[in-house]
Amino acid sequence: MSKALSFLTDPSYYEVKKNGVSPFQNMIAYLGGSAFQTIGDNPVTAYRQFVQQYAKDAAGKAVDPKVAIAETNAVFRKNPVAASLSGLVPRLVGVLLKRVPKFGFLLGYETFTGSTGDPGYAAATAASILSAPFINPVRMIEKQQRANIKVTGKEKPLMEILRESAAKNFKPLFRGTVPLMGHSFASATLGLVGQPRLQKWVQNELGSKSTLGGSATNLVASAVVSPIYVVVTNPLSRLEVIMQTNSIQGKSIPVTEAVREMGRDMAEYGLRGVFRGQGIGIAKAIVSLTLFHEGRMFLARQFKVYNEERGLLPEA
Questions:
Q1: How far is CA 237 from CA 70, 199, 210, in A?
Q2: Which domains does the chain have, with CATH numbers?
Q3: Which residue has the higher pLDDT, 133 or 177?
C-alpha cells in the first residue's frame, strides 16, 4: 500500500498535464465536489437513514414501510433543522477522512499505473477495497449521531460516541465494513467512473443535436445512473444501517444476522421490505451525483484557467 501511495511524494504528481490540471489539482477538485455534494444532500441522506432505521418498532418487530415513512416525517416536522443537519459535521470532516483515501487510491492507481484520462474500473476496485477501513468509522459516527434523534430531538454528541467506542478499543467503529466495501465498489464504478463516461456519451449524442449544455448533460447522466446505483446499493445501505445504528454499548450485529433480518423483512413485506428508502435513495443519488460532478468540474475549470494564465500548460 505504501508503494501505491508513493505518488504523493513524486514531483510529477504536481505537474500540469495535457488535460490542463495537475493530478494534485484534480484531487482537490474531487474533494471540493464532495464538499458541495455533502452539504447539498445531507437532508436527503438523513431522511433515507431514518426510513431504513425505523423499519423496526420498539419491540424489534418489522413494521410496514408506510409506518417507517410516517415516523420519519414526524421527526422532520418536529425537528426540521436538527434532522436536516444531523450528521453533517462528521460528513464534512469525512470529506477528508473518507474521500482522501478513496480518491487517493482511485486517482493514485491511475497515476501509479501510468494511465491517463478519467479513472477506470480497475482503479475503482482498488479504491473501494483499500479505502473501506478509513471510511467506515466516519459512516458509523454519522449514523450513531442520528440514531436517537427520534427520542431526544438532538443528535448524539461526537465525544460520547468516541468514549463509548474507546471502552471497546474502538472496535465498534468498524461495524459494517463488509457491506461498505460492496457499497463503495458500486459507488466508485457507477458514480465516479460510469457517470462521467455516460455524460461524455450524452454530450456527443445529444449535445451536438440540441442546446443541452454541460450542466444539463450532467443531470441527464446522473438521472440514468442513479436508479441502477440505488438498486445495487440499497440492500447494502440497509445492512449498514442495521449494523451501525445498534447501540455501541450493546452487542454488535454480524453481517449474517443483518442479512437474516432483511430476509424476515422481505418475507413479511416483499421487495418493499428490502428496498426501504429506495425512492428517496434515487432522489438522493441524482442530487448527490449532480452536485458532486458540477462542483468537481467547476473547480477543475478554475484550475485550468489558473494554469493557462501562468503559462503552466505543457507544450502540445
A1: 20, 26, 37
A2: 20-309 (1.50.40.10)
A3: 177
